[in-house]
Design a protein that fits this description.
Blueprint lengths: L21 H18 L2 H8 L5 H18 L1
């Protein structure tokens, strides 16, 4: 910086860790489980008992499945 020498970036060649991504996967799994617990409450089961046959409901469900599939990768 003030020494007159140019700053050079140093890149280390490191092996990939075997534990890489495990914490994120664990967090996503916990979030999914919490979502399942929330949406499987009795109050929501009563709403599911009604037969809704709207295209909008199907679209929302498909959008949700796409989001879940993306998060699983």
């Amino acid at each position: 910086m003030g020494t007159g020498k140019e700053d050079t970036a140093v890149f280390l060649d490191r092996a990939s860790r075997s534990t890489r991504g495990r914490r994120m996967t664990k967090l996503l799994d916990e979030e999914f489980e919490e979502d399942e617990l929330f949406w499987n409450q009795e109050a929501f089961k009563e709403v599911q008992a009604h037969s809704y046959s709207s295209e909008n409901t199907l679209t929302i469900f498909l959008d949700y499945r796409i989001d879940v599939d993306i998060l699983e990768y």
